[in-house]
Design goal:
By secondary structure, the protein is mainly α. It has a domain of 186 residues. 65% of the residues lie in helices and 0% in strands. It has 9 helices and no strands. α4 runs antiparallel to α5, α5 runs parallel beside α7 and α7 crosses α9. The structure holds zinc ion. Zinc ion (ZN) binds next to loops.
């Protein structure tokens, strides 16, 4: 095989991710406001100037325009370039990790990026991420098996490479329907319990139903072990950020705005996607040497 091919595939992965990120920016702004994704075409919110195709190139345009509208010089949020860059990086990382199965991961990454930023802005997780993610997680094993059949990957070896398509990935996700359903039940059940207990303890809604659905989706896609790891990582990440916000704003614990939990579930899930199994193996070697899984 031409040695330049993997390099081209890496570049394509990043650029595709940046373009999808550009589209996700539109989704994050318009979907919660009930606006159409196609019309009207992109325009400056200040002066209504239409954004031409060459002003809409991911990452490059924001830099070329130095983060300002070409006509009225109104500032364009740096979040646009951040989301484009982040999605590009995640797509590239998924290609490294999952090889020929990367497109399956790209779909989930896109749902997580859009869902997280909508949750940050509106304290609301969209159904397309949560319910859509659960449905996607359950059909993923079938899609996975189809790609494995198409690329001739030998899954029994634990690798997804083949002679014709020499991309190795040791950690395919959603490997079987029973694992997917077990993960869905555990993720949904665990957070439903947390939500129920929290409601009892605080006498108000401690967690949205969207977070429960989102953890169900994480379980459906990656199985029960991922649910446990994601729960731990997301709690740690959420607590660190929450504490930092309290300290920085000098706000009292009860006084500040509620922190959305969805983005931290996504951060935990992303950590699992790229280093999760290694993390579990490392932890077991450290604290439970000789256990069956270590
Ligand atoms: Zn403008």
């Amino acid at each position: 095989m031409n040695p330049a091919v993997p390099l081209i595939l890496q570049a394509v992965s990043f650029l595709l991710g940046a373009c999808i990120g550009s589209f996700l920016n539109v989704v994050v702004w318009r979907v919660p406001r009930g606006e159409s994704l196609v019309s009207p075409p992109s325009h400056c919110p200040k002066c209504n100037a239409p954004i031409r195709w060459w002003q809409n190139v991911p990452i490059v345009s924001w830099l070329a325009l130095r983060g300002r509208c070409a006509r009225c010089r109104a500032p364009i949020s740096p979040r646009y370039i951040f989301v484009e860059f982040l999605t590009g990086l995640l797509f590239l990382a998924a290609f490294w990790r999952y090889g020929s199965f990367a497109p399956l991961a790209w779909v989930w990454i896109s749902l997580m990026v859009a869902g997280s930023f909508i949750d940050f802005d509106h304290q609301l997780l969209p159904d397309f991420t949560t319910v859509g993610g659960m449905v996607y997680g359950v059909v993923c094993p079938a899609a996975f098996a189809s790609i494995a059949w198409f690329t001739g990957a030998d899954l029994r070896e634990g690798t997804c490479g083949s002679e014709a398509w020499p991309v190795i990935s040791e950690y395919p996700f959603a490997p079987s329907l029973p694992q997917s359903l077990a993960g869905l039940a555990l993720g949904f059940g665990l957070l439903w319990l947390v939500r129920w207990l929290g409601g009892k303890a605080f006498k108000r809604e401690a967690m949205g139903m969207g977070d429960v659905f989102l953890m169900g989706a994480v379980g459906a896609l990656f199985g029960p072990v991922c649910v446990v790891v994601t729960l731990i990582l997301s709690s740690v990440a959420g607590s660190v950020v929450g504490l930092a916000m309290v300290l920085l704003s000098k706000a009292r614990l009860g006084g500040f705005k509620e922190i959305p939990y969805g983005p931290y579930i996504c951060i935990g899930c992303i950590a699992w996607m790229f280093r999760g199994p290694e993390l579990v193996a490392w932890y077991l070697r450290l604290f439970a040497p000789g256990s069956a899984l270590a």
